[in-house]
Amino acid sequence: MLIMFGILKYVAITCLFFLWLQLIPAQVANPDMVFVRGGKFKMGSIYGGSDEKPVHGVVLDDFYIGRFEVSQREWRLIMEGDTSKCYFEGCDSCPVERVSWFNVQEYIGKLNEKTGMNYRLPTEAEWEFAARGGLLSKGFRYSGSNADTNVAWRVGNSDSKTHPAGRKKPNELGIYDMTGNVFEWCADWYSPTWYQVSPIKNPAGPEEGVFRIIRGGSWFYDRAGLLTTDREKANPSFRYGYVGFRLVRPAVDKNQPFVIHEKNARDSAEAKKKAFYKKFIGH
């Protein structure tokens, strides 16, 4: 009888532990981020549309940017109450889409609350600098190559859908899918004449507008938006099936990326398990 009671106690405590493990905040891991050393670059293009001119100098501080676009799984972990479905539901590692600019702001607010970090959307200037490869740029037309099919899911190779992150080549900084897969929301309002008046240091876009900037092209388009300098706009209230986002945060310390990798997460869970057993059953 005592043996049976001991077994039942052990099973009950084990079940409670795994339930507790599912509820702890540490389950929400900080995204995998790439350090981007700031510096000077020429933003815009003499070959692009009128809103890409004039080419002008920009100086940016250091920052971190997501190695990948925010995934469907990452979105669900934070936005449990969001009942709107992606067009390509069921692909955890695919970029989330059908999220408006305002939905993204809600996501970022909740993520920052859970992680204690200061994530945000990239400014248009930060996005372009990172897409070009930052200070390691080789001057490619697309983010990581002069051949778009090496780095982009677009009409012609996307099979009319999004794809899991990281299946194409990364750019010079090790960032994936900044060309193709889904357009990405930026923080800035759109203005076709912004480059004529943009400040040099850390430009953050106009103070007001109607549309927000999206960058990078998508599975739904052939060439539109694919070049690292291409500027596109979208209604911030709309949920588009070809627009997602990636995150940025300030570079407080480039030696502390605050990333919880899979192995570290497993080790952390194992340590919590041992501590739990030691407290409640003594071994």
Structure in words:
The protein has 283 residues and is α+β, with helices and mostly antiparallel strands. It folds into two domains: 1-29 and 261-283, no CATH class; 33-259, paralog of FGE (formylglycine-generating enzyme) (Alpha-Beta Complex), CATH 3.90.1580.10. Helix content is 27%, strand content 13%. The protein is built from six helices and nine strands. It has helices at residues 2-23, 72-78, 101-115, 124-132, 148-151, 262-281; strands at 33-36, 39-43, 56-60, 63-66, 183-189, 212-215, 232-234, 243-244, 248-250. The strands form three sheets. It has a four-stranded mixed beta sheet. A three-stranded antiparallel beta sheet has the order 1-4-9, with no helix packed on it. It has a two-stranded antiparallel ribbon with strand order 2-3. α1 runs antiparallel to α6 (262-281). The chain is globular, with a radius of gyration of 22 Å. Residues 10-26 and 254-283 have low confidence and may be disordered.
